[in-house]
Amino acid sequence: MNSIELFAGGGGLALGLHNAGFRPLAMVERDIDSCRTLRNNLKEAMRLDVQLFDKDVRSVNFSNWQGQVDLVSGGPPCQPFSIGGKHKGYRDGRDMFPSAINVVRVVQPKAFIFENVRGLLRKSFAKYFGYILLQMNYPDLARQESESWTEHLAKLEQHHTAGVEFGLRYRVVFQKVNAADYGVPQHRERVVMVGFRWDIHEPWSFPKPTHSEDALEAAMWLNQSYWDEHHVPPAMRPQPTAELLSRLERMDALPFTLRWKTVRDSLVGLPDPRSPEASCVINHKFQPGARKYPGHTGSVLDEPAKTLKAGDHGVPGGENMLAYPNGRVRYFTVRESARLQTFPDWYSFSSSWTESMRQIGNAVPVTLARVIGSSVAQTLQAHEQHLAAN
Asked: How does DSSP classify residue 50?
């Protein structure tokens, strides 16, 4: 199955979707450093024959791919909606949802997957988010230059309630997902929007979570298999609270899900970045200067990491740190951060620490992309099998 990736960044979504069975025909990313990362990994290391456009999405002619693409995917720049941003939304020039929808209009893929920050669901953005979804439902009904977005919204609402059954249409669903629930060793809540073209009649829903906090707590405190797996001696294991033990004892059975992955899980096999052995591991260089301050205390070893971040002016240090049980902290290395985003160890980042961390902090976790992409791929395959049978 063929795909086109927009706003590709450092390639987390693209790699996950490739692992799910999609072959990227074209990728678009205007950031020079991110394009270098994509070339080094997807084109050179993986030998993918993909056309990489290092330019703005709005300057690419997508008409050559009309009718040839199964999936359009991407993460439109999230700063307009980020909790940590300026919250300008549709007033922010970096809002690229209109451009993403325009690509869908031109290419007419069988499906699309778009990802964005959870801030998109803020109450203050509710009306505009509804507008985004209606545009995704009816990409053919484009906004005219003379129209305000509210006028265009009214036109889309009228079109939707009239039950129009012609033109390019998509069935769109969205959900806020936590990457930790799918095996990513990081709390990372994102809004994922998935649309299927109107002629795709096979049903689809978001994949059910495969990992849980209950399973992690059971592995820690009921059978203590978590500590045994990591060879943590009993004297060095933290003590659970009486309230937690009481709740676990009331469980009728062990959870059926897998346990959440933790920071400790993600670091298995990596030497301390301050040791001589670290020089043998790609992107595993110690970065000095980490410190705690109010609201920024780092990620503890035995939980999924806090959300890795990428600020407008580099990394906001306090969140991209490892917090040791003794109270000390240090920055995650680029390699450790890549593992927290489930990039494979061969995936390299050749830019500076700050720039590499920005790319990683903006990425879609590879595992999350693969899980959702595999589910979409199965639905598209079922559609093709249905057509072949008839």
From this structure: -
